[in-house]
Design goal:
Elements: H1 3-16, E1 20-29, E2 32-42, E3 47-51, H2 58-66, E4 73-78, E5 81-82, E6 93-96, H3 108-118, H4 123-136, H5 152-164, E7 170-174, H6 182-199, E8 202-207, H7 210-216, E9 219-224, E10 227-232, H8 234-239, H9 244-249, E11 254-263, E12 269-274, E13 277-282, E14 293-298, E15 304-306, E16 316-326, E17 331-337, E18 340-346, H10 349-352, E19 360-364, E20 370-373
Parallel strand pairs: 3-8, 3-9, 6-7, 7-8
Antiparallel strand pairs: 1-2, 1-4, 4-5, 9-10, 11-12, 11-14, 12-13, 14-20, 15-19, 16-17, 16-19, 17-18
Helix pairs in contact: 3-4, 3-5, 4-5
The chain binds adenosine-5'-diphosphate and magnesium ion.
Adenosine-5'-diphosphate binds near residues 55, 56 and 59.
Length: about 375
């Protein structure tokens, strides 16, 4: 083997080592345990988002990683080094607080260059770096402006540039978009993601907004009451939620109860006996078996609605249209089936207008339904 080959292998091994490891992290405020054993490995260059309802411990976790709050038990390993006891300025992490925490008496350039100044960078090198950072966030002509003369989105960019100034190993972002209006949130979301990918900077993002989390992340960590409920890519979380809470948290969902009657091992064709009769699906999971009581996770956009399915009867249920709401790109319908109501999204509202005054409709349940085993 050549020397080059060996170095290559070593580089690869280095790159495979996680950048950040959280090991069984606990945090108490008095008797109140707000983090109850959180463990996770974050890969180099990955954008991981902690998402969960308000109060579940997201900010606390980010502050622990940044060193702004002390840990009650567990370990934080950054690039192979245990950093539990290091003060924030000696950790190779930078945090963007939810309210940006910019210095109001300083200009944009002074804010962005603050960390460099503290670290005693020479003036010319600092000026060049600040210029580079302001260009990166498209604020190159705003260097002399005071913070209070900036819009919310511009302040967000300054905070982001300031956090990146010393090229931290891990960037921590606490609800960075929550103070912006809806349209700007979408724009900034994309900008952050693009920059993060370009700089290949390991990022821990925190938000309570499940749609933002899905759009921006490599992986989501869904939290509830100080515990991780599920870790996975946005698709895994949406298509194969681990439980009812997650299924409902990452989008609208219709649940249907049933019992698995049979599973064909070769074709994976699975018959579920429900209160509306037998439905057939193609099983794509191995955590359920014949005889199990299950909840079928039926997403509103996966169901098709028609006035009459013709001869087709498998997986077709009859219902009555209860409501129809046209919303431009989508029509939201509710259909009463038996004594339950199902939410159905139609992505071709022009075609869907035929349902507007229909009372009897047919609903086809897809074969791709995910099952949750009932406890
Ligand atoms: N400094 C503190 N002292 C006491 N309790 C706190 C403190 N900070 C947060 N908490 C409590 O910890 C829990 C988690 O809070 P937080 O991490 O801010 O949640 P999130 O960011 O997910 O909304 C909440 O119940 C909150 O009231
Ligand atoms: Mg918070």
């Amino acid at each position: 083997m050549t020397t080059k080959g060996v170095t290559g292998d070593m580089d690869r091994k280095e790159n495979e080592k996680p950048m950040l490891i959280l090991k069984d992290i606990h945090k108490f405020y008095g008797n109140n345990e707000v983090l109850k054993g959180v463990s996770l490995e974050v890969r180099r260059g990955e954008l991981v988002t902690f998402v969960g309802p308000s109060g579940c411990g997201k900010t606390t976790l980010l502050r622990l990683i940044g060193g702004f709050t002390d840990i009650s038990a567990g370990d934080i390993i950054l690039d192979g080094q245990r950093i539990n006891d290091l003060p924030p300025n000696l950790r190779d992490t930078r945090i963007c607080f939810q309210n940006y925490a910019l210095f109001p008496h300083m200009t944009v350039a002074e804010n962005v260059g603050y960390g460099l100044k503290i670290n005693k960078w020479p003036k010319d090198k600092t000026a060049a770096r600040v210029r580079e950072l302001l260009e990166m966030v498209e604020l190159d002509t705003f260097g002399d402006r005071m913070i209070d003369k900036l819009s919310g989105g511009q302040q967000q960019r300054v905070a982001f540039a300031r956090a990146l100034s010393l090229e931290p190993k891990v960037l921590l972002l606490d609800e960075p978009l929550s103070n912006l209006d809806a349209n700007l949130r979408l724009v900034m979301r994309e900008e952050i993601r693009k920059l993060q990918e370009r700089l290949h900077i390991t990022t821990v993002f925190v938000t309570h907004d499940q749609f933002e989390a899905m759009a921006i992340s490599d992986r989501l960590v869904v939290m509830k009451d100080g515990l991780i409920e599920q870790v996975g890519t946005p698709i895994e979380i949406y298509e194969r939620p681990a439980n009812e809470f997650i299924a409902g948290f990452v989008g609208y969902v219709n649940f249907m109860e049933g019992r698995i009657e049979s599973i064909d091992e070769t074709t994976c064709n699975t018959v579920v006996n429900t209160e509306y009769g037998r439905l057939e699906i193609t099983l794509e999971q191995d955590d359920v078996k014949t005889g199990d009581d299950v909840l079928m996770v039926i997403r509103p956009e996966s169901v098709s609605l028609s006035l009459d399915c013709g001869d087709k009867s498998q997986n077709v249920l009859c219902g009555a249209l209860k409501s129809y709401m046209y919303a431009g790109s989508i029509a939201k319908c509710t259909v009463t089936i038996g004594d339950r109501t199902m939410i159905i999204d139609q992505y071709n509202p022009r075609d869907a207008q035929q349902f507007q005054h229909a009372d009897r409709v047919e609903v086809e349940i897809p074969r791709s339904v995910h099952l949750l085993k009932k406890k």
